[in-house]
Amino acid sequence: MTDPNHPNEQRDPRDPNQRIGPDHPDHLREPAPPPHPYYRELEFLTPREAQSRFVVRFGEDRRPPGRPGFLARRAVLGAGGVPVVQYRLAPSEAQGGPEAYGLLEREVAASVALERRYGAEKFVGVLTRVVGFDLSAAEPFVLYRPPIGRPLTEWAGRLDADDQERITGQLAMAVRLMAGLGIVHRAITPENVRWDGTRARLCEPYAALRAGEQRAPYGAAPWAPPEQRAGRGAVDPRDDLWSVAALAYHLLSGRTDRGDGPPADLGDYRRLAALRHSGLFSPHAAERPHPDALLRLLHVPDPLAAGAEAVDVLEPFRARYDAQLARKRALTGERRPVGAPAAETPGVPVRDARPPSRPSLFTRIIRGVEPPRPTAAPPPGPPAGPPSEIVQPPPSRNRMCPHCLLPVEFDERLLVTIDAKGNRVPLDLSTERRPAHRADALRKAYHLCPHTVDGDEGHELPLPYLVNGEPLSVALVGSSSVGKTHLLAAMLGEVELGGLEPYGLKCLPLNPEAHRAYLRERVQSLQQGRQLGRTGQQTFARFADGLLVSAAGAVPRPVVFFDLAGEDLAQDSEVGRFLMGVDAFVFVLDPLRALRLPSLEPVREQSGLRLRDLGDEAFATVLNRIPRQRGGLVAAPAALALNKSDLVRFEPVVDRWLGRDLPGRLDPAALHAESRDAYAFLAQAASPAWLKPFDDCADCTLHFVAATGGQARGDRFPHGARPRRVLAPLLSLFAQCGLLPGAEPAGPTEGIDR
């Protein structure tokens, strides 16, 4: 018998188990005219992301049940007539249906993950096999091998007891395989299970979610469990086991139950005794057995038993991450002694030191330990409240201008507004006696920096920057075209949509008019699917936008974001002198420049980018410019964001994180695990130079993010911008800097001078 997974064996091209990709005999390596007017050419990516091109003949479209917004049709690939089934987004959904596109993207991610992990195993026959996909096509699609057998609904009354047991056991095996990758199918029904007389086969995972995600209401009784139908709690692989139990009861009894718990007559069926006593019919997932335990009850061999697990090639690199953390902790110490001042750096103002009272949040994050929830009093400063309630309070201490790094004292004579032409108009409030009007004017006012000298560009600060809590400046670092501008716009777009509110943070504009202009020119353009223009070089570093961030009972803190052109960051010029005063950094990494992955070669050719084993020159220039403390490490908190992660979304470790939403609260254990995985992925697929921010910064987390979720065509993203996990780096920095409720500043960075 031939091996259906060996690419070099000669066999019938119509064999449903034959690999369909660049090694297939009908694969077109060069474009060719179709041999018949009924044929067209179809390009797609295989599950290993290899480019394939076949002549294809399509059948008629139909609307598949349970998949609104999709069209389905059969197709035949190549001269050998290899049959496939294509599911694609209807034209209207492809152009403006982000929800339908997201469902397709999830389905493809689940199908590819299953194929990559189990495609060469004999037991993979219990799953529908994916052939290929194209998520960037005008009508995005996925291809599957055609279904074999008939739905269980057509076998009613024709299955003997042995067949029923085989179906139950094989479905339990399918759930076990999916659970091994953290995938929950959620759509196991008689219509979605096919039986050919010897093998049960589960349909495509078009409703799949990741274990641990919030349940979304889906399915109907009795096949979907009560918690899934109601959308309560977190997705659990045991959700699918309820569906298997409901099917087992239906096959044996010929009836359907109400789906609220164990059927009333369950005790009448001795063949279901093991399922009944195991708690499989419990309405609560936590009371059901795990998939591997169910296989033991059914006397079905566990395909993922000890010794059968795939070797994780990233594990040695995770160990290297642990060693690097240990090295940095040895250099910096767990905490600085109480009251010990930091070393003075000439020419840079020293910030007030606040000695830590306990190990830092970052220390707990890197160890994967859940932090306690302290109720610390807010730091001294002006009264908390929205800007409209703050009426010219004096600052608690001098503020350092983030541009020129010199202290600025509040002086009402230096207040200005900026008109539509950009002119600075003096603001005189000496005769204004109405408190509400005065507060509104101050909310929109700017304060001139008094340190402008002849020949320098004049600059000003939004007044709230001077009269609230300790400011926080964040700089995005990376070469040109790595996506810094898109990432910042995506971040602030998520903030505007309330993305920080689940974490107990409220955000207001630092200056309303400047913020509106940024939203209009950057955020809204990105949300409308337009590619943003490159950031131009500057003669003076200005921040792109600013927020006033506050938690309940705490003093609001100004947060400003710097987004400079990559050319300005890569040059050791005067434009970048502000970097010595930046409080936190987001280093933005481009996978097209960094990762040695064959799947990225077509995109590199299209974009004109090339691999750079020497790393990002902007990373090196900025890190070499920042003063070193704490054992020769950079003291400012940092985050390394692997942007454009959608380009490598089907790599298992990337899919593990990019395929799930951020949790609704800061989870130090998850943050530690993501940093560890991202480090391991980069250490395996990129040169060591790309990890320089992590190696050089005392506190640095790593994140998989996608600012746009796809590649632009021309000046537009054809399926819209779909940001993924873009707030993760910001939340990490906020946690390290003490901005999140219940989170302390990273202890070893207290009192640093920059």
Which structural class best describes the helix and strand composition? alpha+beta
Mean pLDDT: 83
Give the DSSP E fraction (strand runs of 2 or more residues): 5-15%
Biggest pleated-sheet summary: 7 strands, mixed
Q: How large, in whole angstroms, is the Cα Rg?
A: 29 Å
**Between the first and last Cα atoms, what is the distance in angstroms?**
70 Å
List low-pLDDT spans: 1-10, 335-397, 747-754
Level of helix content?
A: 25-40%
C-alpha geometry: elongated
Main sheet strand line-up:
19-20-21-18-22-23-24
Structure summary, number of beta strands: 24
Number of helices: 21
Architecture blueprint of SSEs:
Layout: E1 40-45, E2 51-58, E3 70-77, E4 82-89, H1 91-96, H2 98-118, E5 130-134, E6 141-144, E7 150-151, H3 161-179, E8 183-184, E9 193-195, E10 200-202, E11 209-210, H4 226-230, H5 238-253, H6 273-277, H7 291-297, H8 315-332, H9 361-367, E12 399-400, E13 407-408, E14 415-418, E15 424-426, H10 435-443, E16 446-448, E17 460-462, H11 463-466, E18 472-477, H12 484-496, E19 505-509, H13 512-527, E20 545-551, E21 557-563, H14 566-570, E22 584-589, H15 591-594, H16 601-607, H17 617-625, E23 638-642, H18 652-658, H19 668-685, H20 692-696, E24 700-704, H21 727-736
Parallel strand pairs: 18-21, 18-22, 22-23, 23-24
Antiparallel strand pairs: 1-2, 2-3, 3-4, 4-6, 5-6, 7-9, 8-11, 9-10, 12-13, 14-15, 14-16, 16-17, 19-20, 20-21
